[in-house]
Amino acid sequence: MYGVIIALMPALLASFYFFGLGAVIVTATSVAACCFFEWAICKYILKRKQNTLLDGSAVITGLLLAFNVPSNLPIWIILIGALFAIGVAKFTFGGLGNNIFNPALVGRAALLVAFPAQMTTWPKIGQWDTYLDAETGATPLSIINSAIRSGDASILDQLPSSFDLLLGSSSGGAGAMGEICALALLMGLAFMLYNRIITWHIPVSILGTAFVLSGLLHLADPIYPDPVCVLLTGGMMLGAIFMATDYVTSPMTPKGQIIYGVAIGFLTVVIRNWGAYPEGMSFAILIMNAFTPLINNYVKPKRFGEVAK
Amino acid sequence: MNIRTFSIGGIHPAENKLTHEVATKVAALPKQAIFPLSQHIGAPAKPVVQKGDKVKVGTMIAEAGGFVSAPIFSSVSGTVFKIDTAIDATGYRKPVIIINVEGDEWEESIDRSDKLEMVESHPDLTPEEIVNRIKNAGVVGMGGACFPTFIKLTPPPTAKAECVIINAVECEPYITADYRLMMEHADEILVGLQLLMIGAKVTKGYIGIETNKPKAIELLTEKCAKKFNGTKFQVEVVPLKQRYPQGGEKQLVDAVIQRQVPAPPAIPVNVGAIVQNVGTAFAVYQAVMKNKPLFERYTTVTGKKLANPGNFLVRMGTPMQELIDACGGMPEGDNKLLAGGPMMGKALTSTEVPICKGTNSVTIISDDEARRKEPQPCIRCAKCVGVCPMGLEPYLLAKLSEVKNWERAESEDIVSCIECGSCQYTCPAHRPLLDNIRQGKSTVMGIIRARSAK
Amino acid sequence: MDFILIAVIVLGAIGLIAAIVLFAASKKFAVYEDPRIAQVGELLPGANCGGCGFPGCSGMADALVKGADAGSLDGLMCPVGGAETMGKVADLLGMVIANSEPMVAVVRCNGTCEHRAKIAEYAGLRTCAAMHACGAGETACGYGCLGCGDCEAACQFDAIHVNPETGIPEVDDDKCTSCGACVKACPRNIIELRKKGPKNRRVFVSCVNKDKGPVAMKACAVSCIGCGKCEKECNFGAITVENNLAYIDHQKCRLCRKCVSVCPKHAIVDVNFPTPAPAPKPKEPKKEEEATA
């Protein structure tokens, strides 16, 4: 678990750089709240002998939840999100190892539904010392969304360049804290792959499918964004690298993981282009989380000796 | 050259081959030798001596108890003290023959000379004669499983043997007995291989050795070329990538001839391979050429805290305590005593357990290293699935065994598990995967047996 | 008001059609079930506890009818309903119940921490089945109780618990329904179903060790050494000694407790008696003179 936390450090530092004070407050609140709720529920409600706070999973949930929300989110909303993520998504199913859905995503989805206004106003980057009073702007995904809806391709000119999306250095751009700098996330991916914390199957199949599908769509009709833009905007990188690869909620065999990843990539592109919400990643992952037990049941690893039959 | 290995799973535990370069010593004779009647797979042997009988080294003291069984020979000379029960490597008191050792007188029929007997000097040796001598000498698999060798050499009519594979892999950490045997008796081993090939009526042979034993690979390759080039026998020394459990029969067959043995009840000979441990090949040479039945073997006595770990040529029946004393005595503090290595060995509660036909090692691990950590909940990381050499899903099999869902356990192929322990070794949550799977496997095998008995 | 009338008529029509369809289906797709199964089901308690080993009372009713057709109701027992219920069921099916004595689970081991020294520490999976597969256990007795509680886990009636001080399970007479789950769970066959006895009194040999006397004694202070004194003492032929172990047949035992007095190792235990067993009578001098003469 702690390896994943280290892998998240570049993205964390990037979020502090781009969003300043807001990022620090939101992240600190989220992590502290998740840890507190984990400890308290374990000790007082479930009365378990061994408190699971120390395995690091609460910290990861806290970080990922923070990365998914705007950096001007009020503290009380973050606390509700943390309680939902840890209490409802994790412990009602049985705690570590037993949850079906990714806790951070469930928290985010719950907040999105309960507080749509606060959850869809994104602060612009480059504001060092603002928190609740941060100036907000249009995210790349909301630009794409309005372009597709209106059919007006000229709106797409407002999109930052791919280079800016990768590094997150576009001035005036906006977004969620964990999504702004794709490069930092890729560094985390490299770290995890090198240390064999995760395998390549899920990230590559998600990104690959999204790339191919959005590429085909873009060729068919340029109103759809180009594939590189699709990969670099929104929660695609964060989701593919950190959320979908969560051990507990992803399939247990390489073949199963590829099926899972392809489906997530497909669903994300579909929801982004034709769904009401500009962002499709979190819903795509939650939908496929529900399919994980089914995939585990039917996709078995190759048994030794099967070939010889 | 592409170094081969088996195709699915596997782990790489620390080698700890502390006794790799320690030359084998002949262990001192014990004062009392204890011979359990069950040192092999199959029916226990039946005693043919009684209290007060005098025996010599090589005298048969128990005859085979059935078809799948093997006779037991005294490794010492002296008087039969009693036929009683004593703790053996199963952890339970089992029937044993106890002999008080007097002197070291051998049966006259045994050839004790060092002369290397060649097959070519014995043109009248038929395959049937070879198998018969192996059977009468009580030779069983020396790798630890102790399956009677003569049965392996006579496969059922549905299977045809194509080659003999010598298992010189010794993938388990700590154990070096097979390596020392290869370095010190390579010629005899090759004659033994030749005898096995004749007995199995094949002309192809392989010797699988892991790359952590480069000297053995070099030595055997050279001797093989000298011995078999130009003859009808094609013998190849196959260096194998270091990986556990390469020494498992099925994994070895996969690595050497790239054929996968199907799920039980299939056995390696169903894909044409007869696998024998290198120690068994040596025992076959001695049985057929020197008329020497199986009563002594190479055993490693090792452990990080032992003063002088070493390899021994030990007479079977020697209590482990004597070997441990020869290595400097049990280390201070609480220790885990294993008959075998740390992966597949069995933990014992007594140092009086005797060395038997399958005891390839006595490993002593101190409490602080051996003690398990507290199990955490399963985080579904699937590392166990990745390392299982049989392509199973250990997390699932363990859970099914825990909740006693035997039907599903059977359909998930729990009987294919070779109990190598790779899953439990890898699990980051320290879950007792193999312990649960073992319970499930034995219950499901019992259910299958009961079903087919109806 | 029209629309209310229309709504009523429409719903009434749907209901009527649905009723006709369901009636036809229940006739056409009816599965024949032996009517006795339902009748037996009426007699059973309806708790669906599974103590009989079948899935619920309907499963048990099914098994009882099958058993009656096969000719015997042996092995079928509803622990909650007890002998009374079984008697009624037997009458209905025209069968005879062999044995309707109340039974109770008895743990035949007294190798507590005090009596049986530990020679090793088992640090593996803590279930009796796993420890049994690993070896003799933490003591020198390879037959005795391992104390990990597989029996406690198997009991559905909260009737057996491992006493943490002694390490041996104890049975609650009132809660035990003699369903046999703990008997099956114990890998060493230490637990046995025996007659509950009048006033819950019973006498049994609290040892299953088949090792020779000296070996058993070394392992445990209260092990049976197979000396046979109890066998000689019993006037009812209830005790047999086989494989260095004495066994009291609970059908023949009259609870006189002479064996309890005479056992030199105190391996025979008497339960729920108000007074302790009388001390063994000393040997009369006449007999000794005869022996030395």
CATH fold assignment of the domain at 119-289 in chain B: Rossmann fold
Name of the level-1 CATH class of the domain at 119-289 in chain B: Alpha Beta
Calculate the terminal CA-CA distance of chain C, rounded to whole Å: 121 Å
% residues in beta strands of chain B: 15-25%
Description:
The complex is a heterotrimer of chains A (about 300), B (about 450) and C (about 290). Chain A is mainly alpha-helical. In chain A, about 60% of the residues lie in helices and about 0% in strands. Chain A contains 13 helices and two strands. Chain A has a two-stranded antiparallel sheet with strand order 1-2. Chain A is globular, with a radius of gyration of 19 Å. With about 450 residues, chain B is of the alpha/beta class. Chain B has helices spanning about 125-135, 150, 175-185, 185-200, 215-230, 250-255, 280-290, 320-325, 365-370, 385, 395-400, 405-410, 420-425, 435-454, and strands at about 25, 30-35, 45, 55, 60-65, 70-75, 80-85, 95-100, 165, 205-210, 235-240, 275, 295-300, 310-315, 335-340, 345-350, 360-365. In chain B, the strands form four sheets. Chain B has a six-stranded mixed β-sheet, sandwiched between helices. A four-stranded antiparallel β-sheet of chain B has the order 2-8-7-4, with no helix packed on it. The model of chain B has no long low-confidence stretch (mean pLDDT about 95). Chain C is α+β, with helices and mostly antiparallel strands. Chain C has a domain at about 105-270: Alpha-Beta Plaits. Chain C is built from eleven helices and eight strands. Chain C has helices at about 1-30, 35-45, 55-70, 80-95, 130-135, 150-155, 180-185, 215-220, 230-235, 260, 285-290, and strands at about 105, 160, 170, 190-195, 200-205, 240, 245-250, 270. A two-stranded antiparallel ribbon of chain C has the order 1-4. A two-stranded antiparallel ribbon of chain C has the order 2-3. Mean pLDDT of chain C is about 85; it is low at about 285-293. Chains in contact: A-B, B-C. The interface of A and B includes residues 97, 247, 302, 303 and 308 of A.
